[in-house]
Amino acid sequence: MRWTQAAAIRRGFYNAVMVDDAGESIELMCHRCGAALTPGTGSFWIVRIEAVCDPSPPTIDPDESIEELAAEWERLLDEMRDLSEQELMDQVHRRLTLQLCGRCYREWIENPAP
Hints:
The protein is of the alpha+beta class. The chain has helices spanning 5-10, 66-80, 85-90, 102-110, and strands at residues 28-29, 36-37, 44-52, 93-101.
């Protein structure tokens, strides 16, 4: 079976950023240098990054009283009250998808965190 690009997109073989919500094609650009990217040419890379905050539970001092723990929880809740749901989520989990041209990918993969 030979799949069209649209069928491949529906099946998740392409990054969803290649089409908008209406299914219309959109122009792809390298996230580093801005070069135009052409699907189907094998000339660019899709890079998916997932960042997760330290998943270990906090250290609790067994000598700390319940009142002290409750006060700390209240302090943390007060800090978070004015943050949006997205801001709160970004503090614990973040996913990014980048499109990189071949040149930028080769540079980035050798030193992703300069």
